[in-house]
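Help needed: design a sequence for this.
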């Protein structure tokens, strides 16, 4: 074989290789849809607390943490004592997170 045929064959296979690799990249590449995944679970976490304020009294409450922004809001706080002496300090139950203060 002469040098021109060898050179033409090498160029042909080089271009064919580039086309195959480009095709693989296009077929197996990442899509822009998955570039920034949205959180469908676990964004809001709930935690509760309670403490004793003596023999017949105590306090309890619940707060929510937004794990994306780091914001924490109190949902419910109640002080209780002897029967009939309890007092609800904060009640944000059944409100959306954005409506709580």
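Sure. Designed sequence:
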């Amino acid at each position: 074989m002469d040098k021109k045929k060898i050179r033409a064959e090498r160029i042909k296979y080089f271009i064919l290789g580039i086309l195959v690799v480009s095709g693989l990249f296009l077929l197996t590449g990442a899509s822009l849809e998955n570039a920034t995944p949205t959180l469908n679970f676990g964004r809001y976490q709930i935690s509760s607390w309670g403490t004793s304020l003596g023999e017949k009294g105590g306090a309890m409450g619940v707060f929510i943490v937004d794990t994306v922004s780091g914001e924490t809001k109190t949902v419910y706080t109640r002080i209780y004592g002897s029967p009939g002496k309890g007092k609800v300090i904060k009640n944000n139950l059944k409100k959306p997170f954005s409506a709580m203060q």
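Residues 10 and 16 are 10 Å apart (CA to CA).
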